[in-house]
């Protein structure tokens, strides 16, 4: 019994040291970060009214998208709570708070068929949200060696995919993982956790969820699967410059869209949590500027907006963005990409 108590004390001590170290690091970084006021959103999608014979997409916030793919309902990296980070007690977390609310609630997406998880970082793999969504009818696709995080949740099935592996987690839906340039550890000792982007294919249409990535040439290979109809690409968390080892700049994001050959794009991983030092509206301005005359390929730039594949769609507010010239917008810093199979250790405050 004494040995057991001793082990509990050691484990508790290690956990407290880890929480203290993360809290101190977060405090130091936070002093240099923007502090936006809370923002309400104008659009509230109604997915229960969407047509199962179409492909319909909305951006809930950060890297969370809700997709009706010909009747298959998919949610990516679901994070629907008010805060992300380390849970220290039921309902209590240490970490960044949302400044933009989610466009949909847990109740709105309870009928989801498939959850896609790109990697185990806490702003992408939120246990509170996953617990709320767990049900026998829900399937999950996740990165290599992360399935164990879900072992106590009542999902119908959990499929792990490594780079370029594929499966059919839901009838008629093909999911293939592709390599991106990031890394996967949730805590310092999770060095074997994987990280993915995903290609989704159904009835000859292809969608791409990129997860989180720095610039990589891997996107050039996506068109080998066939024409890409739509891609979600991350555009935020690139400052300070050291973060660009794991997160692309908006200009690099646009180049990867071009490399993929995708017809339409939705920028994600911005305007939800403050994770880095760039001004919160800078990513979308730089992304639109990089797109230039092709800016109308950008669909959904606000949480809650809806895009239907093959429908005429122009987000008029994208044009408005090009008329402004926000301060503090700096040129892209181009860095030499390393192989995407090698994890980058440049991280945001939540890359733990």
**Count of strand segments:** 15
Helix content: 10-25%
How many distinct folded domains? 2
Report the structural category. Answer: alpha/beta
Identify the overall geometry. Answer: globular
Biggest pleated-sheet summary: 7 strands, mixed
Q: What ranges have pLDDT less than 50 throughout 5 or more consecutive residues?
A: 312-319, 322-347
Helix and strand pattern: HEEEEEEHEEEEEEEHEHEH
Cα end-to-end separation: 33 Å
- Oligomeric status: single chain
Beta-strand content bin: 15-25%
- What is the number of helices? 5
Radius of gyration: 19 Å
What's the CATH architecture name of the largest domain? Answer: 4-Layer Sandwich
What order do the strands of the largest sheet run in, or round the barrel if closed?
8-7-6-3-2-1-15
CATH C-level class of the largest domain is Alpha Beta
The CATH topology of the largest domain is Metallo-beta-lactamase, Chain A
InterPro entries: Metallo-B-lactamas, RibonucZ/Hydroxyglut_hydro
GO cellular component, one term: cytoplasm
Pfam families: Lactamase_B_2
Organism: Marininema mesophilum
Explain how this protein is built:
- By secondary structure, the chain is α/β, with parallel strands linked by helices.
- It folds into 2 domains: 30 residues; 280 residues, Ribonuclease Z/Hydroxyacylglutathione hydrolase-like (Metallo-beta-lactamase, Chain A, 4-Layer Sandwich), CATH 3.60.15.
- The protein has 5 helices and 15 strands.
- The two termini are 33 Å apart.
Question: In short, what is this structure?
Answer:
Keywords: Membrane, Transmembrane, Transmembrane helix. By secondary structure, this protein is an alpha/beta fold.
